[in-house]
Amino acid sequence: MEYTTEPRRRITPRTRSTAANLGRFCVELRLGQWHLSLTLVFILLGFLLATGFSTQQRLGERPGPRKDNLLQFIKKQRGEHANLEDQLEAARIELALIDAKRADSKGILAAYGRQLEGLKLRAGLTRVEGRGVEVIIGDAKRVPAGIDPDSFIIHDYDIQIIVNALWRGGAEAMAVNGERIVAHTGIRSAGSTILINSTPQGSPFRIKAIGNTKRMERVLGEDDDAALLLGEYSQQYGLVYRLFPRDRVRVPAYTGSMGLTGARRG
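Given the sequence above, the corresponding structure tokens read:
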């Protein structure tokens, strides 16, 4: 390859000016195109915003069927809610009335229960305990030969004398040899034994009574029959007699029959 010997042409200032002008023109052309594009974009965005605002304004001014249905649904739900609140209030009032009636019923049942317990206590159907006395009477330990032994043993009427005296002394509950004495208790002889509530009992006889200790002791000494039995007869015939005041006396409940065979409602 052959190279020219002609010297390279120097770029003069005028040549540099022409090239710079050409570059500047290209830049300005590009900027102009960007300005045009941005202007078109802004115009399009402004149109869309205006259209959307106009559409929203028209929708707000004239609700469509969907909005009408929504309003009707809300109105219906409010009505049903109010109706449910009325029903709930009515149910609360009815429940309060039921509770009041139930409380009255419970009060009546509680009153009946207290009355029943009181009746059971007075009828001797409840085990009780308290301060009282214990009276022990029994047959003589020795019967002299040739003398009627009838005077040396305790009879049914002897027990009845002591029991009646204790009742007059204010006894609240009583038992003889563990048999509760109630209104219809029978004390009677059956051969050599004594029946109490139809249960055979033998000497000695332990009579336990709950009540005022001093008053019952005084009545036992003031009653003619009791004083004769526990005083003169016990000494003359050797009958067993003991009287003990007790801080704690236990009287069992009556467990026999409460049925009536002869009595009828009048």
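The helical segments are 13-61, 65-123, 156-168, 213-222, 224-237. Try to locate this feature in the token string yourself.
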